[in-house]
From TrEMBL:
It comes from Podospora pseudocomata. Keywords: Signal. This is Cyanovirin-N domain-containing protein. Residues 1-19 form the signal peptide.
Length: 177
């Protein structure tokens, strides 16, 4: 039953990719974590679960939907590995929190803050300046999606960092705990 459900989800994903008119090569099946985050933000009830997203990513080529202008995230070889399913669960949580209007904030004099920790994965933010910073948690999830698209690995781990897409004073890191 579980396998059946996952297969249906993957087939639905492949079908939606094939149907997307903007895809340059409609015959290729690809997966993007950034696109998955957008799916959660658009409708958390119909988006793939984190476990389904990992299966879909593992079954296809992971690509960035941000286009050629998006530089690759820094995959930070010295960070400890995060289990990808745990890190994906963090993206899912942050995207859902943001959908409820929740902000991910760093107060004055706070230089590092944990935005999410699930299992063996953590998503932390750091900043250089002194002023307090705040973004919708959706944007932390979106930034995490970009890290995944560059840094998800076949051994089912992920780690890396990227500047927050909507606040260049905040850096988002995904790593093992
Ligand atoms: C990824 O795919 C490989 C090859 O099909 C499979 O052996 C492995 O179990 C898969 N891993 C996950 C996390 O789905
Ligand atoms: C995030 O990674 C950068 C680059 O390695 C590092 O300078 C920063 O301290 C890290 N932030 C946290 C909160 O660990």
């Amino acid at each position: 039953m579980v396998n059946f459900t996952l297969n249906v989800a993957v087939l639905a994903l492949v079908a939606s990719v094939a149907a997307a008119p903007a895809t340059a090569d409609a015959s290729s099946t690809t997966f993007s974590f950034a696109r998955w985050v957008e799916d959660i933000i658009a409708n958390p009830d119909t988006a793939l679960s984190p476990a389904e997203a990992i299966v879909a990513a593992n079954a296809t080529e992971v690509v960035s939907t941000a286009g050629g202008l998006q530089k690759r995230a820094n995959c930070q070889p010295t960070f400890p590995d995060a289990p990808a399913p745990d890190a994906a669960a963090c993206l899912n949580d942050l995207a859902r929190k943001g959908a409820n209007g929740q902000h991910c904030a760093m107060g004055t004099r706070v230089f590092e803050i944990e935005m999410c920790r699930i299992g063996g994965a953590q998503i932390v933010a750091s900043r250089g300046g002194l002023a307090a910073q705040s973004v919708n948690c959706q944007d932390v999830a979106r930034t995490g999606g970009l890290i995944f698209d560059s840094c998800f690995r076949a051994d089912n781990t992920v780690k890396g960092s990227e500047i927050c897409i909507t606040n260049r004073l905040m850096q988002i890191n995904i790593s093992g705990v």
